[in-house]
Amino acid sequence: MKFPFAISNYRLDNSDIFSKYPTQEACIEHLETVRWDDNPTCPYCKSDKVARKNELDKVGRWNCRACKSSFNVLSGAIMQKTKVPLQTRFLAIGLMVNAKKSVSSCQLARDLELNQKTAWYVQTRIRVAMVHKERHLLQGIIEMDETYLGVVT
pTM of the full predicted structure? Predict the structure, then answer.
């Protein structure tokens, strides 16, 4: 799965997240665009024979005609089966990506007004998603900030 943001294109700020993704529905629409690009597929059987559910209380639910399962854009993703709102998770990603070193789960809990265990859970899932299974050496022009080269005398 692609990461929910094109992080390399701009600095992700809390005000950007609130303006671009003001509601849960806006977050779902963005994730559907990033994950499926107008071609939704079932995460269980990989079939593209799917149809959107028409239930008012279940935004973003899909039915697979091949395996008869019900799913949404979060099925099979790091954000699956959590009760934390998507906007809060987007904010957590923004805070973690923009931190100079790292963000502790205690700090994340204070910033997002969550309890520490929930913040730790969200943070761990984001960190797992940031690790690529196939790691490659960097190529081309690489920019680094705050790097010191030389010998201490």
Answer: 0.73
